[in-house]
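#struct-pred

JT: dropping the chains for the assembly here, can someone run the whole complex?
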Amino acid sequence: MIGRRRFIAGASSGLLLGGCDRLTNSPRFRAVLRSAEGLNEGAQRLVSARTALAREYGEADMSPIFRSNGTSHPGTPEYARHLAENFANWRLAVDGLVARPLSIPLASLKSIPHRVQITRHDCVEGWSAIGKWHGLELSRILDAAGLSTRAKYIVFHCADRFGDKPYYESIDLVDAFHPQTIVAWGMNGHLLPVANGAPLRLRVERQLGYKHAKYVQRIAAVESLAGIYGGKGGYWEDNADYEWYAGI
Amino acid sequence: MDDAAIIEEPIEPAEAPAPPRRIAYRHRLPTRLWHWINALTVFVMLMSGLMIFNAHPHLYWGQFGANFDRPWLSFHERPMPGWATIPSTYNLAAARRWHLAFAWLLVIGLVLFLLVSLWNRHVQRDLAPTGEEVRPRHIWHDIREHARLRFPAGDAALRYNILQKLSYVAVIFVLLPLMFLTGLAISPAMDAAWPWLLDIFAGRQSARSIHFICAMALLAFILVHLVMVVLAGPINEIRSMITGRFRVPPERMSA
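RK: done, full complex below.
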């Protein structure tokens, strides 16, 4: 038997306070909320030129200290070995739906003329930091590999893990071929620090921080995100229900 | 509209005659619809917004701002209590889903309301203050009357008084558009599409601060609004916002 007082307390908290939580937990309501992600992406792409550039700042605008977020050190034996070797044997694999799979030594990647951009990093939590990035346009890497016309997404496989799950991220071809989308090896005039993704990280300047995969080891061109880990296109998308489209 | 019979006063009234009961049509359908859509939407936006604020409860001015920079407002841990947030336990991803979906309702509602209300002249006729009303003496008079809880009666109760007009105009034409534009300015993709967003607010972190300040101003408006509804007669007021029909408070006998 439920006492009257307990019933009233339960009913009021259930109706008033828990109502929104119950909706949050309802798969059908979540599907309604999730449909706004496509609406946001469609609307933003509609009002945005394909190559609209994120603002590039001057040296004077840079954050005095650029904080890191997410993994600050991958901590695996394999990564520790690379770090001890100063990443001399780090290679970037490019495979999947490409005509010429590549395995690019880090040194070759850094020897090519590169792009430098001072841009703002916006975290999903709300903070922003401005830093200077040095790296190679992703479009040049994809062109060198010869992207198949079937490819729709570019997936970034990383060396860091959360528990037993490897970090990964993905973007579509609009962002993959955007002029500011680079595979960065330098930050603020130096090689990337470990906390910021050494030796290679993605910069995809029109999206939030969690899309900017760090410790990138492999780039794969795919037709669909289904079947890759949780199938939602990224570690946080799979495990915390963050939006795959993180332009907002 | 005023179809109540005129009661002739007896020559020697035993007591003051009961004033005629007068019902007037005060709120048109678009206003009522928008009001209730907002009653839902604004609460979802405020509560999911407070949860998003919990993720990084520090506000900055300028283009950037993070843990090593100096905030102008800063809290420890996660300051917003569960009863004030959606969801009630920490979940940034779910709060963003709520916030970025209901934002559409808020914006579409605002745009439709403005279009309809300009077209049916609600804005020009009912919301726009007149030259007489914005004179300091008139505003001061209304403030004093409100402070004494003496609310307009008779025909005056069918029009918005100047304090109402100024509040509604501030919400409709200043706060809500600012919420929308600063919200866009927080989006990195919108900053690339419309770089002027960063210029008018002097940076993403400034925009985020203004977004929060406007949200708190909206919350203050809602609290005062609810207090005024209670003081002015909640049943009559709420009924008038549901059916449109409002029982006009009779004129006071003595001026």
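JT: nice. The domain at 30-247 of chain B is CATH 1.20.950.20 (Fumarate Reductase Cytochrome B subunit). Chain B has one domain: 30-247.
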